[in-house]
Write a structure and sequence with these properties.
The structure holds two protein chains of two kinds. By secondary structure, chain A is an alpha/beta fold. Chain A is about 40% helix and about 20% strand. Chain A has eleven helices and 17 strands. In chain A, strand 4, helix 5 and strand 5 form a beta-alpha-beta unit. About 5% of the residues of chain A have low confidence. Chain B is mainly alpha-helical. Chain B has a domain of about 230 residues. In chain B, about 70% of the residues lie in helices and about 5% in strands. Chain B contains 13 helices and two strands. Chain B has a two-stranded antiparallel ribbon with strand order 1-2. In chain B, helix 3 packs across helix 12, helix 11 crosses helix 12 and helix 12 packs antiparallel against helix 13. Chain B is globular and about 85 Å long. Classes of the chains: A alpha/beta, B mainly alpha. Chains A and B meet through strand 2, helix 3 and helix 4 of A and helix 3 and helix 12 of B.
Chain lengths: ~400, ~375
Amino acid sequence: MKKLLALLLSLVMVLSFAACSGEETAKDGDFKIGFIFLHDENSTYDKNFIDAALAATEAMGLGADQVMMKKNIPESAECYDAAADLADAGCDIVFADSFGHEDFIIQAAKEYPDVTFCHATGTKAHTENLDNFYNAFASIYEGRYLVGVAAGLKINEMIANGDITEAQAKMGYVGAYPYAEVKSGLTSFFLGARSVCPTVTMDVKFTNSWFDIAAEKETANALMADGCVLISQHADSEGAPKACEEKGVPNVAYNLDTRDWGPNTALVSSKINWQPYFEHIIDATMNGKEITQDFCGGLKDGVVEILGLNDKVAAEGTAEKLEEVKAQLIAGEIKVFDTATFTVDGKTLESYMADVDSDEAFTPDTEVVADGYFHESEFRSAPYFDVDIDGITIK
Amino acid sequence: MTNNTHHTHEPLIQVSKRDDMTWYGSWAVRAIAIVLALAVCGIVTVLLTGLDPISVYVSMFEGNFGTSRRLWAMLKELSLLLCVSLAVTPAFKMKFWNIGAEGQTLVGALACSACMILLSGKIPSALLIPVMLVASVVAALVWAVVPAYFKAKFGTNETLFTLMMNYIAMQLVSFCIVFWENPKNSNTVGVINSDSMLGWLPSVGGQKYAMAVIVVALLTVIMYIYLRYSKQGYEISVVGESQNTARYVGINVKKVIIRTMAISGALCGVAGFLIVSGVDHSITTSSAGGMGFTAIMVSWLAKFNPLFMVLTSLLIVFLECGAGQIATAFDLNHSVADILTGIILFFIIGSEFFIGYKIRFRTKKKEA
């Protein structure tokens, strides 16, 4: 009997100690952030997020036990399970990186009102009216415009060298889906190139997949066989850059410095640097500040970046020109979607109603052309420019 | 001196079939296989990552049983995989190589989401779920009966036929997504009826996946009884053993083939219904998630016994859920977890060989 009592007492003591120590850690240092990624490092899209997450959490002084990453999470109920599991594990913020994750993250956000849920590339934060659900994107069209300028300069050099005639100045673009995000990107790229090379045109082909190495390679090859003298892409694999290296055609990449894949053809790349955003949400959550509901970073805050400018490939003076245009973009002297620089079916775009607030019928609800330019990413962070302009041929 | 060496060639290893393994003997072989697999996994883990293998195994358990949410997520995966496995079992027992469970499930899921999208608000909501279930079952049944009919009537190759039907199903889903995508051109359907929750399976006791688990548990028992005690179940075994025998004893083989594939397809339809109505509330080309193929392994490993299939599907789901947890807990690439899963499956499938066959090495003859 005595033994039993002693055992019980000691058990109570141990448990109370455990309870005490539990409370102590609950006060500080138990901030946790959880990430959900669609693929792993093998996808350039996800690698860009993963690298930024590692850099941001290190810069904010978070320990390894304060960061949880779930990779290869498909856009299904598994995403909801993963988000809820991270919330259960004590995460204060749950972040997901893929467009298709959004609905499942919202589902989890409704169930865990005390946890902050952030989602990149989504569209619903400004219409769902949840206190704990946030979207983020970037005005990547500015970056695309800049790399377009580099592409235009390269084509000018080819014309000056007599490699091609002005009429042969045709670029090729490997797109994923004919979705606004992709169209906004390819149009800004084209407008950047045409701002320095007035005769340039562009062919676009879609792979209908975000990540398909073989299809991206095939598509790039088909475009080159069709006479495209420079290739860019909005798809996540090494398919197009490697195809360009084989054929010796300059390539403009996205999200990654691709000089390893194409030392002789990789020209330049643009990317979204998510680190400032991650630092923003970590800082805000830790210190009780407000998170931007629909965050849209750009060139000026270092969220949109130009990287991997390859001196071996780029035309002379590219770096200087890019600096100059970048400064003008930041100052607002150049508007990427300036309606004076493009036409739609031969006419200037005077008015455009975009579907900014997602609804089932996709009703265009917002006038986005004003003051002589198309206001991209201003009414919500995710792109909504989906106009087919003259000079670009969709194949 | 005389040389007495025989000149008849005896192979180094002789393999012969055996039927004499006792039940405890065969379970001992399986247990040894698992222990060996864990040992090899441990060595590989240390060599590849330098991590302590025990903590890796602990984390696998945590991935499955760590919290009640994980337990339910595991049960959900288990019941979906088990449902598709139950579906392929009668066909495989009949030696009808149905490689098309993936497509049959997908078509079921497609029919289910079509009802959810097109009929919500147009028919009474009490009717919606039964209509969805019937539509899923009928669609998947048709997808399964078409190759069965051609096999029975014209002797076409069912492996190729069912396999190709998978691709048609996938393209059909892609095609429909174009009309249903939300937002436009995003190529995703998103969660259907996310506000009204019309057509969502109700939760039981606060658990949203409980309904799926209950349905599949019932189906497992029914399938066990059907295969073991019903006349039709017996006919399936006979046709599977020998079609000539079946014909000789007066079984209508064509009828059995078509009927069995209809059952197979109908169950895939139930799986598709559970995926859309009970779990994802959405549809993509990968809604079936490769389960149609994994199910074949589940079914074979369990020797077509639905009760054993609970165990074999648990094994596979356990490895999958555990693999995800390892990748998160130790920040490893998913491939490491996949390697470990591969090793464990290799040993378990290998153990079946040692249960079914006897191995004898050439013994050296003593020289006189």
